[in-house]
Amino acid sequence: MFALENLCSGYHDGKYFLQDITLEIPGKSFTSIIGQNGSGKSTLLRTLAGLEKYSGHAGLGNYEIAKISHGKFAKYVSVMLSGKNFTPSYPFTVREIIALGRLPHRKLFARLTEHDQEIILNAAKKLHLEKFLDRNIMSLSDGERQLALLACVLAQDTEIILLDEPTASLDPDKSLRIFALLRELANDGKCIIAAVHDINASLNYSDYYVALKNGKLISNGIAKNLSPEILREIYDTNFVKYVNSGRNDVLWHAVC
Predict the structure, then answer these.
(1) Parallel, antiparallel or unpaired: strands 216-222 and 54-60
(2) H-helix or E-strand containing 162?
(3) Which end of the chain is more exposed for a tag (fewer CB within 10 A), N or C?
(4) How far apart are CA 252 and CA 209, in angstroms?
């Protein structure tokens, strides 16, 4: 789905932060981007989303990302960036926020169709937001706003979903439900790529991982093949691997 070759991105102070990234991210799968804060996870995600200038090659299917029109791109790729600084200047309701996901599929100023309304409601139901649909988005907690932004992405109904810390501000139970939902979407044929912080919550639901450190690609591959050596290299600490015998989940515990 995505093919990167000698990619340099994140231009700042006369140089690129991401350096010489070469990898492929397949479709119909769930890929987690892991690494320390400041490793380049968000920059890589923004590059895939067409929001960063870059050198080298960044391909989406047969197209160069930088050459795809915004309108065409939005029909195939939906993006949820960090909602930490999300402060709308108008008192939008949750329903209106989710409805923004339908914009790429409508003519300018066209009314929402019954089909659009159905998709909006289904997106809200998947994230248990039905009772909040007519609430002001800013009256919700940080975690609830995060869910509303994710519902907007679901309403866009694209083949590819790019997410930056999709479970930020969420309690552990809600976080796991989100990863389970993303796993379900990947099983249904969508390409999910998420920059994540909680590796234990994400990797057990992921097919693949991409590991970054200081703007460089350290490793990428099948999530189940991630090793303590790779984790030590990217996080600068030792890890012990545990296996949950009941579910066969792998848990990584950092140790000094």
Answers:
(1) unpaired
(2) strand 160-164
(3) C
(4) 15
Tokens of 207: 């097919």
Please list, in sequence order, all residues whose beta carbon lies within 8 angstroms of the beta carbon of residue 115, skipping any fewer than 6 positions away. Answer: none
- What's the token pair of residue 245? 């015998």
Structure tokens at 154: 């679901």
DSSP assigned state of 136? B
The per-residue pLDDT string of the chain (256 residues; one tens digit each, 9 = 90 and over) reads 899 999 999 998 899 999 999 999 999 999 999 999 999 999 999 999 999 999 999 999 999 999 999 999 999 999 999 766 677 878 999 999 999 999 999 987 889 999 999 999 999 999 999 999 999 999 999 899 999 999 999 999 999 999 999 998 899 999 999 999 999 999 999 999 999 999 998 999 999 999 999 999 999 999 999 999 999 999 999 999 999 877 778 999 999 8
Q: What is the DSSP letter of 236?
A: S
Cα separations (Å) of 56 from 33, 37, 64, 230?
20, 24, 10, 26
Tell the residue number behind the tokens 């919700």, with chain if given. 140
What are the C-alpha distances in Å from 109 to residues 71, 112, 119?
A: 15, 9, 18
Q: Cα–Cα distances in Å, from 79 out to 116, 132, 227? A: 19, 22, 29
How many whole angstroms separate alpha carbon 172 and alpha carbon 74? Answer: 31
